[in-house]
Each structure stands twice: as C-alpha cells, then as structure tokens.
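Prompt: I keep going back and forth on a fold encoding question. Comparing notes only helps if you start from a blank page. Show me how you would write down a chain together with its backbone fold. Please set it down just below, with no commentary around it:
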Amino acid sequence: MLSKLLDPESVAVVGASPKQGSVGYVILENLVTRFGKKVFPINPKYDEVELWGRVIKFYKSISEVPDLVDVVVIATPAPTVPKVLEEAGIKGVKAAVIISSGFSEAGNTELENWVKAVAKQYGVRVLGPNCIGVYNAYSGFDTVFLPAERAGRPPPGPLALISQSGAVAAAIMDWAARRRLGLGFLVNYGNKVDITETELLEGFAADDRVKVITIYIEGFKYPGEARQFLETAKKIAAKKPVVAYKAGRGGAAQRAVKSHTAAMAGSYEMYHGLFQQAGVIEASSVREMFDMAKALAMQPTPRGRRTLVLTDSGGMGIQAVDALEALGLEVPEIPESVAKELKRELLPFAAVANPVDVTGSTTDEHYKIVLDALLPTPLFDMALVVTLMQVPGLTKNLADYLIDAKKYGKPIVVVNFGGSELVQRFEEVLEDNGIPVYPTPDRAAKALWALYKYGEIRKRL
C-alpha cells in the first residue's frame, strides 16, 4: 500500500480546478506538469479545459475514470469527504490523500470518525486529513498545494521527512530547495486518521534511496502509539539513522499542538526517553535536524570521539574546540614528535597543537599536508576543517584536497563562512562530493556529534 501512496502510477484528483490560486488548481498543475504519469482530474463542473498548453479532460466522478487508480487526492469541503472516499473504495482505489481540513483539529471528531469507518469498510488506506500529503522528488508525484515559486521543490536525494505539520513541512521543502539539499521524499500526515509516522518509518526504512529518515513530531494521538513507535524505530535505527525533532515542549506549546492536529503532546520528558530507548537521534530544532541528517547521509561513522581541528582562523578554531568539548567530543593534543614533523612543512608561525592553525597566510597545500599527515594515523577519528576562503592563498583547488582526504575513511565536516561567488561554488563542489559544509563551528561540531552518536547507537542496538 505504501508504494501505491508514495510512488503511484496513476492518481485521481477530486476537487481539481482550472481556477488559478485554488488548492485544486495547484495540485493539478503539480501533477500534470511534473508527474509524467496518469492523472485524472475529477470535477463535475468541467468537461475539457485548456491548461498549461494542453487540453485537460475532467471527469464527473471517480467512477467515470476508465482506468485503474492507485491513489486519490481529495481536496473538497470536509462534509463531502466521506462520500468521495466511498466512491473511491467502490472504484477499487487502495490509498487516499485527504487534503481537506475541518475535522478533529476543528472539534469535528464525529466527521473524522465517519471518514475512518468508510476507509475501513472499503479497505482504503488514508493519509490525513488536514495535510499537504506527499512530495516524491524522484517521480514528481506532488500533492503539496503551495505554488513552486512560494515553496520550492528540492532535488532528489538521500533524505526523507515525515512531518506532523503541513506548514512546517512546506517551509522545510522550500528551505531545502534553496540550499540544493537532496530531500527525496516528504510526507505530511496531519490528523493521521489511519496512516501513522510508524508506518511511514517502515516504508522509508525499506527504500534504498533513503539514507536518513527525519521526523518532525508534535504528539501521539492514540493509545499504544508510543510503544509501536519505539519497537519500530529501534529496529530501523540499527540499520538506518533516524533523526527527530519534538515540538510542543512547554505548557503553552502543548495547548497549541492540540488545536493544530488534535494530537496529545504529552510530557517532553516522555518523548526524550522514548527517543533514547529507540536509538533515535534527537535534534533541538528543525535546522539542527537537517544539519545532522546531512552529515549522516554523506559521511561514515567514526571509530571514536577524537577530533582534529584544522583552521586558517585562530578564533574559529577556538570556537570549534569549545563546541566539540561541550558535546563530549575530544580534541587531543598532537604528540610532540608529530608536531615537529608538521612544523618543518608549515609556515614558521603556524600552530600545531590541535587546533592546527595554518593561519591567514596559508595555501591549499598546507591543508593537504596536515590532512595527509594526521588523518591516516590512529591519533584522530574525524576532522572539523575551517576554510575561510577570504584569505588570498586559498583557491578552489582546496576542495579537491578535501575530497581526496575522504580516502582515509574518516568523517570530515567543513566550516565555510561568506557570501562571495568563490565561497558559494566551493561549498557546492564539496557537498556535491559528499562533504557537508556549515556556516559556524557549533553547527559543524553538532554534525560530528551526530555521527559519533549514531556509531554508538549501532553498537548498542
């Protein structure tokens, strides 16, 4: 069923519309212009309409569609949804995405229960209601009703997002698109009348295209969900990283959660303990969740916590050490014998204690010298490299040296700060070749911590 929902061959859109600015128009545009597979617009008001340079045939109801339908997207007023879902069930549709809102989140629990009963009667699995549904960057299957110029669509890549909030999911999608972050799948489940985050976890765990699963969660809704999540996440985390951000930690936030998706926020301590038991890496913000996920998707896990800090800025090096040590990672001093060897090849005023500060007079080759001398040794398990490209001796060739250092099999993250074309291109080359880049030392340090943490989780699970 999840493959039909996430990767369908055919889709019917009930509530499709030729009226620009409407929800039904945006969803139909997404699918007609980018999906490339069978799309059946359903709206009894129209027969044929010319849209996007082609003639689009509309159907009066799902029963009129002359072909099999894998998934139906419902974007009609809430009171009409049970009837539409019944028609889909009679047609033999096995999955539905209910975009419509106005259910339990608005106090209309009776209508939501009716939807649940109809779905159960006809064997239709339901995502939603009150959701934006699914974005599949690989196939172009996209039920997000926000125009692409307002909410950008990210490229295919190794990350998947499961989100309880539609607006948060859309904002993340736009943010990821502007940063060329490979977000291959996004699913917003809204009120989760049927399909839960646990089932979606299982679906992404089985998909080899997904390397890291991220979850934005506000609260569980039904009894027994926490245990199901724990048991499932624990099995998945042993093989694939799961990173979660729990929103709704304080009293006022918990009240907001209930009015948002009718979920039970519960005590934050319960979720914190649940994540720890399940081997889920917990983030303190959405941004941090993706900082960590990016590193987990690109880099290997380290054998230990000993970190090399290599920098052309003493100030940035100090910040990096503070951040690493605050997270429980080690920044060991380089042995005197090794330091002497480095001194011979670096500038006379370079510092070689760890952090290794090659100074603002550095060249690309000085970075290569340090990486080749220290990363292959047992002295270090990973490296945090600061590359402030404003210094005159650095060029785009430094990226090649950093990429070459991946051969040592140890995690490398880079701190790069600035807005010039050189800086931006440098970052793009690194990330396109699997080295994550961050604008500040604390964010890079947290990414290394996540790699270390996941290594420890796998040992435990």
